[in-house]
From TrEMBL:
Top-level division of the source organism's lineage: Bacteria
The organism's taxonomic lineage, starting at the top: Bacteria, Pseudomonadati, Bacteroidota, Flavobacteriia, Flavobacteriales
Keywords, sorted A to Z: Hydrolase
Matching InterPro entries: GH, GH13_cat_dom, Glyco_hydro_b, O16G_dom_2
NCBIfam families reported for this sequence: PRK10933.1
Descriptive protein name: Oligo-1,6-glucosidase
Cited Pfam families: Alpha-amylase (PF00128)
Natural source organism: Gangjinia marincola
Length: 551
């Protein structure tokens, strides 16, 4: 297996709107990130991934870009970005940007031109179709509820938008569109950016016959109609050859519909497409019969199987990304851990998991202090377009809205978007103005300042785990094997290569659990635990992690 910097890196994801506000408008900004670089560096991470900071009308918080070469003035503009990039490099870290290439904003100049007439030179930058009578061209639905088509009155045709109406899909069949995107990648790479996280890249190649959906199963719609289109790998290879391969940059493609079967096609190094992908096999694991807002308990054997299967499937030619949360999902401690009595222990356990699996670990801002889900009492307090649209749709279809609000509490993307909790002062030290999204009321106890003051905080544990991963390359490259795949409470695995062998146990339950198959303990040294005092035994306390090193 080839060794590279991005396999050895630990990545820290920033959602700039919610990170740190220096201008007092309640919205995080780039100077706010610069102010916190000491903090980020102190974690021991190597790479910062910035969610979109380009000019945008913010219909989907930056995932609707109106100018790919301009940094949003609200975030501080180009000068602030240049300073950030310089400083990040000065700290010996790298900076990865988000690239949203499946769609632009409807306020992008390409689209305002395209709308003007059927023969406008930009018309074919987007996907236009005639309606069927007074109905849209087909029954495709948007990820964010409702039809995926919007009629434009000027030309009486419909355009495709898999996300909001303000995010028209780009037409990748058009070579000019592809060249525009490659030029944008080149533009930022020339400025010294160290890589790209490519938003919904699995969706860029569309089925050209736009077949009508014959299922309402959301996963099936994505897999069979929207994702992994006929030319996806041709496009990614072309992108790689034309631009990516000219730079020492990393790429991670985000993708609904990327699965075990097609995953290697994106990341197998011989194919020269992308370095890594984000799949969602473990992230949709708790969706219930009525979908995302009807969550069910996470089944541990299934959860473990996702990691084992992907590890087996990708190696040795591909490389994985390990993440348990991001700006699109609820907080990892609330979802996969226990955000009540065992918040500290379970957040540490999840940190240990994140940092001891094979694949590049991605830490989402705030998870390093164990930030939790939030439960606003009314839908009016939610901002996320996906949540708000899903709410309206549920209401219209007569669902039990009290139950739905519960689902929102558990599943809304806003759970991960509440402002970063820096200290116990007003607005959690995020801003001195009322923030764009309310602060989680637990900020008085859950915050960075408190965590920095404590020797056994979640934050401290993250730092220790990151440095452990740096100390032992076995934790990066070593083989992975699940020793108890069927166990309902424990996740037990080995990481092993010529240099070292680790035996790692996590107790995903509120009970004390003993692992009967534990090998003879005299061969093992207990290297680390998330409990202050831990015995080198085969018994684990609630949410306990034990990391053993073979002697
Ligand atoms: O958020 C999701 C599940 O709740 C996903 O379906 C999500 O919409 C999908 O993973 C794509 O996400 C990415 O593209 C979206 C943007 O809203 C997300 O923030 C982004 O990460 C459209 O650009």
């Amino acid at each position: 297996m080839k060794r590279t910097w991005w396999k050895e890196s630990v990545i820290y994801q920033i959602y700039p709107r919610s990170f740190n506000d220096t201008t007092g408008n309640g919205i995080g900004d780039i100077p706010g990130i610069i102010q916190k670089l000491d903090y980020i560096k102190s974690l021991g991470v190597d790479v910062i991934w910035l969610c979109p900071v380009y000019e945008s009308p913010n219909d989907d918080n930056g995932y609707d870009i109106s100018d790919y070469r301009k940094i949003s003035a609200e975030f501080g503009g180009q000068d602030a970005f240049n300073e950030l990039l310089d400083k990040v490099h000065g700290y010996g870290m790298k900076l990865v940007m988000d690239l949203v290439a499946n769609h632009s904003s409807d306020e992008h100049f390409w689209f305002t031109e395209a709308k003007k007439s059927k023969d406008n030179p930009y018309r074919d930058y987007y996907i236009w179709k005639d309606g069927k009578g007074d109905q849209p061209p087909n029954n495709w639905v948007s990820f964010f509820s409702g039809s995926a088509w919007k009629k434009d009155d000027t030309t009486n045709q419909y355009f495709l938008h898999l996300f909001t109406k303000k995010q028209p899909d780009l037409n990748w069949e058009n070579p000019k569109v592809r060249q525009e995107i490659y030029d944008i990648i080149e533009f930022w790479s020339e400025k010294g950016v160290d890589g790209f996280r490519m938003d919904v890249i699995s969706l860029i190649s569309k089925l050209q016959d736009f077949p009508p959906l014959d299922t309402s199963d959301y996963g099936e719609i994505i897999r069979s109609y929207y994702a992994n289109g006929p030319r996806i790998h041709e496009y990614l290879h072309e992108m790689n050859q034309k631009v990516l391969s000219k730079y020492d940059i990393m790429t991670v493609g985000e993708g609904p519909g990327i699965d075990l079967e097609n995953g290697p096609l994106y990341v197998n190094e011989d194919r020269e497409e992308l370095n890594m992908v984000f799949h969602f096999d473990h992230m949709f694991i708790d969706n219930g019969p009525l979908g995302k807002y009807d969550p069910v308990a996470v089944n541990l054997p299934r959860f473990k199987k996702v990691f084992s299967d992907w590890d087996k499937r990708l190696h040795p030619k591909g490389w994985g990304s390990i993440f348990l949360g991001n700006h699109d999902f609820s907080r990892m401690v609330s979802r996969f851990g226990n955000d009540g009595e065992y918040r500290t222990q379970s957040a540490k356990l999840l940190a240990a998991l994140l940092l001891t699996l094979r694949g590049t670990p991605y830490i989402y801002q705030g998870d390093e202090i164990g930030m939790t889900n939030v439960a606003f009492s009314t839908i009016d307090d939610y901002n996320d377009v996906e949540t708000v649209n899903a709410w309206k749709e549920a209401e219209a279809s007569g669902r039990d809205m009290k139950k739905f609000l519960n689902g929102v509490h558990r599943q809304s993307r806003d759970n991960a978007r509440t402002p970063m909790q820096w200290d116990a002062s007003a607005y959690a030290g995020f801003s001195d103005h009322k923030p764009w999204l309310q602060i989680n009321p637990n900020y008085k106890s859950v915050n960075v300042a408190a965590a920095e003051d404590s020797v056994d905080s979640i934050l401290q544990f993250y730092k220790e785990m990151i440095s452990l991963r740096k100390e032992y390359s076995t934790l990066v490259y070593g083989d992975f094997k699940d020793l108890a795949p069927e166990h309902l409470q424990l996740f037990v695995y080995v990481r092993k290569d010529e240099a070292a062998e680790f035996l790692i146990l996590h107790n995903f339950s509120e009970e004390e659990v003993t692992w009967p198959d534990m090998p003879k303990l005299d061969q093992y040294k207990l290297l680390k635990s998330n409990y202050a005092s831990a015995e080198a035994s085969k018994t684990l306390q609630p949410w306990q992690t034990k990391i053993f090193l073979k002697q």
